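Lecture 7 notes. Example A: sequence first, then its structure tokens.
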Amino acid sequence: MKTYLIATLIFIVFFLPSLSVTIIDAGEVGVKKLFGKVDNEVLPSGFHFVNPFTKVIRFDIKTQNYTMTVEKSVDNEEQSDAIPVLSADGLEVILDLTVLYRLNPGKAPEILETIGEDYTNVIIRPVCRTRLRDAAVRYDAGSLYASKREEFQGFIFNSIETDFKARGIELESILVRNITLPKSVRETIESKINAEQEAQKMIFVLQKERQMAEQKRIEAQGIADYQAIVSKTLNNNLLQFEKIKALQLAATNAKLIITDMNKNTPLIFDSK
């Protein structure tokens, strides 16, 4: 015990003054840099002793987002980072894009050494803009705006993910927030979509009318078949029987006296 205390005292007196303390917050990692050389050790969140000459660079490893858009921000200032691209049919399309990504903690020293701390402007922004332009030329403007938007989004995700992964960045999601076409093109596309919707609606109405007509035809055929059968078997006894059934259903708390045309013996029914 005495030896342990002496060793601790020696450490405090001789070594502790030569160390500095650094704290890495949750959601961060630290990378040590000494005299321009990057240390491959990654400092996790927590309390660390480091050489006082060592500079610790902190990297955020939480999910981050970068949005390229043209819209009014909170302070009502106009941004101008949307991405103009050319479609396959030669039209200029403006894209608003949001990218969700995070740094690979184990790659932080490599990122610092090869990219630096400003990886957003060095990698994120230029890679996204380049890949969007490369992908847009595969689609015409109408497809981007309507039918193939999801396919387009999946295509650019795969291409950007490959580039990010090679640089120690993990792509989580890409959202094409808005696609702005020239006004005349947009109006033409919207008119076409409305016409297609009306055509589909008309097809549905016609199908419904056909079904109703078929139902009525079947009902009419059933009535005709019934009448044909009845006409073959119709006689006075059947008529008398049907008359009795009808009067039995109609009569309530009353006595019915029924005679035929020939004044034969009457039939009396009591509904009680």
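Example B, a different protein, same format:
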Amino acid sequence: MRSIGDAIHLVSGSAGAGQLKGAGARKVAHSDDKLTTGPCDVDPVRHAELRRAWDAEAAPHVEFRRPFDVENLRAALAGDAPILLWGTRAYSDLIWICSALDALERIGVERSRCCLARPHSDDPYVIVGMFAADETRGALAAATAITDEQWREGGALWNTYASSSPLAFDEARRRGSSAFPELTTSAELHGAWFPRIQDGRLRLSELDEVLLGSAGDSWRTPRKIVEALPEARLTQLVRMFDAYFHVERLRAWATRGVLERETLDDQNPFEQDRFHMTDRARALLNDGLERVGDAPPMYVGGCRANDPASPWVRIADDAGWRLALHSQD
């Protein structure tokens, strides 16, 4: 790598792009479209179509998301400048790295142009945009050529993540990866939105339980709901899964009558609604679900969670947990 200013930098998030520019990067390509929420697909054209349609439906007035497809990437990388792919070991950054490796291979970028920069933190939820400029420069100095194993496993992980079945990605998480050793711990969050079998009963997903349980008996805006969460849960729900997604999820629960929703006259997307719990919400928290489809469906990578047609659930086992189809649904 010649210098930070010579390279084309690929990074997830405006904060990461800002940090790189502050450290001296002149050409940065980034997307605020977190791939840990919303639909994904192994076909890049179909993937881009799904992302744009989902974003237009779910958040038509939110401007910070920018789906970044293969053609955007091809245009950003024109020329022969070195390419620096940035990402930490946090779950959302790991998914970003894998998607980017797959896309780089698809457009035929010369591997010799590419390096990987991975700022390190002991906090498993720290993303690139949270590092200081001197730490960013240190990560640049430590950047390495992307190995054949990283190219191979990164592309494979993306394709399993974007598949309509979550099993292959879950099996990869359980098996572990020498190219991406953080996979086993980072991808614990892959199971956070699947309903769970506990003590023979069907329960809400881990993060749905957190979100509904924080809605409270009094009217609260989404901002107030997440501000009441413990720091670790707030970090998981917002930093790893898109800053706006919890608003969409609260609205989805309201369409099921589980939360009451009132629309407010406010242009701030995090203050446009307020919610409170209903007896139905309390029953779901206390007693669990009768069937998978009792919860509003959502995408986890290429898979649809809470879909009666493919009722995936999280089941505890000796290794922690695994995903399986719910045989009684």
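Note on Example B: Residues 91-106 form the longest helix (16 residues). The chain has a mean pLDDT of 92.
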